[in-house]
Amino acid sequence: MTAELARECVRFAQMGWMRGTSGNLSVVLQRDPLRLAVTVSGVDKGEITADDSVVIDVDGNAVDSDKVPSAEAALHARIAHVAGAGAVVHVHALATVVAAEHWPDGVVLKDLEMLKGFGRYDHEEVVIPVVRNSQDMLELGDAFEKGFDPLVPALLVARHGVYVWGDDLVQARHRLECLEWLLRFKVETRDIFTGRHS
């Protein structure tokens, strides 16, 4: 699992979505008690290795290790617990942050074929929730849970980034790639569709 975390980090770094040490990934190791492997803090995601992860508990604390988990580890654990996710991906793709800036009450997506890659039908109306950024993971977790929709496996954090989850890292990655495309389309066509899809 830890090697898989490293491979996915390098992939996202190459895409420009995990610049420098930003972003973090996690994968659930067991449910009861909840344990996740999460990337450690302060490591260049383009150079990360299988050793650069740590096991955390449901509160985001390291278990039997002196390694420092990502600052957002507690939110990963909260998402895994509430959504039943097997993996959580957090990146700083620019389109996701710009979309949250334009639609702070939630980004509406509809009539786009790529929604199928996000796990929804193209004719469905999907609202990606947006929450205000905070350094307090309990506050962010409460905001996530308040607006949680089990049919929408994503959360935009204003002026920060995006969280996407799935049954495993591959599904989470696929959903993220499709969501980034959808949000980029939404942002780049904002002026064209003003009043119709805004």
TrEMBL record:
It holds the Pfam family Aldolase_II. InterPro entries: Aldolase_II/adducin_N, Aldolase_II/adducin_N_sf, MethylthioRu-1-P_deHdtase_MtnB. Its cofactor is Zn(2+). Its EC number is 4.2.1.109. Residues 3-187 form the Class II aldolase/adducin N-terminal domain. Binds 1 zinc ion per subunit. It comes from the Bacteria. Keywords: Amino-acid biosynthesis, Lyase, Metal-binding, Methionine biosynthesis, Zinc. Pathway: Amino-acid biosynthesis; L-methionine biosynthesis via salvage pathway; L-methionine from S-methyl-5-thio-alpha-D-ribose 1-phosphate: step 2/6. SMART domains: Aldolase_II (SM01007). SUPFAM superfamilies: AraD/HMP-PK domain-like. Zn(2+) binds at H90, H92. The keyword Manganese does not apply. It catalyses: 5-(methylsulfanyl)-D-ribulose 1-phosphate = 5-methylsulfanyl-2,3-dioxopentyl phosphate + H2O. The keyword Ribosomal protein does not apply. Catalyzes the dehydration of methylthioribulose-1-phosphate (MTRu-1-P) into 2,3-diketo-5-methylthiopentyl-1-phosphate (DK-MTP-1-P). Belongs to the aldolase class II family. MtnB subfamily. This is Methylthioribulose-1-phosphate dehydratase. It comes from Lentzea pudingi.
